[in-house]
Amino acid sequence: MSSSPSSQNSSPPSSSLSTPAALWRLKPFVKPVIWRLVGGAASALVAAIIALMIPLVLEQIISGPVRSGEFGAIAWGALAVFGLAIGEAVMVWLRRQFVLNPATEVEYQMRTQLYARLQTLPVAFHDRWQSGQLLSRMMQDIGLIRRWLAFGLVLLVVNILTIIIGSVLLFRWHWLLGAIFLVTAVPLWIRGYLFEKRYGALTRRSQDQAGDLATSVEESVHGIRVLKAFGRGKHALSRFSRQAETLRETEMSKAGAIASIWFWLDLMPQIAFGLSLISGIWLISQGAIEVPELFAFFAMAVVLRWPIESIGFLFSFMLDARTATDRVFEIFSETNSITDPQNPVRIIEPRGELAFEGAHFRYQDAGASERDLLDGIDLVLRPGETMALVGLTGSGKTTLTTLPARLYDVTGGRVTLDGVDVRDLALSELRQHIAMAFEDATLFSASVRENVLLGRADLDVHSEEAERVLREALDVAQAAFVDSLPDGVETIIGEEGLSLSGGQRQRLALARAVAAKPKVLVLDDPLSALDVDTEALVEEALRHVLADTTALIVAHRPSTVALADRVALLEAGRVTAVGTHAELLKTSRHYRHVISSLEAEEAARTGAIPVIREDPDDDAEWSAESVERAGASTGSANQQEEEVQA
């Protein structure tokens, strides 16, 4: 799978929007809880105002009771300061109560909607994106957005307002003292502008690299058997270490950028304090201000120091949140090319006639000079008919099977079900009529029952009807082994079913397709991992199931061809011949070549001795005797072995 676009270019942020405009896209998620967040911001602002009142109260205490020596007044003044401190603490507590629940609600809504979006986006999207990139956006980025909404946004707004209000109050004592604080803030604004440009690029690079690292972990865990079998654990570790080191270097660059802004955030207030102290002493000597006023000024400056110093951290936090928002909305803004039609057609009584009419398909990354992978497919499957699809590797068999259920859409022509273009059907209805079983069986971390009944949303999985459907499907797939599992059909299958053998996974995947009770069943070599005895039993059971079901089966074995009423030969993206097995043996040289290849592969797999005959390409037609022998060779592997032994 290729990497996502964002992981290939990790320098600039993908969004050209300004930071406020980029974050404004969160509005639909924030709107339902906006008043709770406003309440949190209001509580924080009240706490800040209370903190700013304390220097004013101290000024009155020093200029009044302290100078006069009235002990009782001093005590009341101390109680007033203590009361203000308690009020500030209560407001801080209220802020947390206001914002924590709505922030987690936003996180929940974003995660569920992003997951729903991933479910609706076409397979072509998932072909392009690394799973680790999607996982990091789902977990890391949305979690960061939640923390910013609950903490960063509220404090950024409140601290900016606190600085503005406090700066105005600084002018209350003398314009020179207030001007010193404003002038010393100018370098901070300049550094902040430069910081945004550098830090934004570093943040995007870091989050993309974290996604790549998550992909490496996921791939190594899923492929642990391969790595162990080939002794490539150290190689995987070396690759992971390089990626981790690259991420570490980026994080160090981020830390350097933050350290740079913190240097200025710490230096400039110190310079402001020093200049203010010198200026304050001079103003006192000139009689412009009193000592209590200078004391109150510095008390106010101390209160403002945390809001001023926090701006750098909160600003970088905001840029992190902006980058996370960009990454999440890259998925939300993806175009979904496979959607329900505006006015879907319904098939009241489906018959199961599947037809390909001039169907073309090419993958999105195909070169302009390359021909279509499927280059004008014309094929009709009659209701209840079983058709085998054969062809050499690369002829387009598997790709063809993805078109009926719209895993991909044709790029030309159309696919119809009972005469209706599948693009005119609602996806839910289409996938109710058409079920699939893949060669690479995928199971989920759920019970056997839930895996097999995955396609039966109409059933309560614990009902009697569900039990009957479950047992029928397991019988067809020869999956009686489930009863010997620790908890029978309630046994939880491990991740991707890797705790089961390949044949067991395939049988459960086949049972899942059978349990869906579709009118059309598409099977992409679903028996490849079965032993010859089990395969023969499954094929016999499938004959009964397929009696009234239209089936398209990709055949990689001669025995699979024997299931079919007719066979379609796929050659270089086109159906070049359709007929019974015997008819094609007589009339198609390429078909004879394909069957010979399948027989050789089957012989290698089973250890049987293949039927040796002359190269079919040297003869225009085989003799009747050759056709009869070839027809017999498409029986089960057991029959072949018995004939050889005889």
TrEMBL record:
The chain crosses the membrane at residues 33-54, 74-94, 148-169, 175-195, 261-284, 296-319. One of its GO terms (molecular function) is ATP binding. It is an enzyme of class 3 (hydrolase). Residues 606-646 are annotated as: Disordered. GO terms for cellular component: plasma membrane. Residues 38-320 form the ABC transmembrane type-1 domain. Its EC number is 3.6.3.-. It is found in: Cell membrane. It is a multi-pass membrane protein. It comes from the Bacteria. It holds the Pfam family ABC_tran. Residues 354-597 form the ABC transporter domain. SMART domains: AAA. Keywords: ATP-binding, Cell membrane, Hydrolase, Membrane, Nucleotide-binding, Transmembrane, Transmembrane helix, Transport. Belongs to the ABC transporter superfamily. Lipid exporter (TC 3.A.1.106) family. This is Putative multidrug export ATP-binding/permease protein. It comes from Microbacterium hydrocarbonoxydans. The lineage of its organism: Bacteria, Bacillati, Actinomycetota, Actinomycetes, Micrococcales.
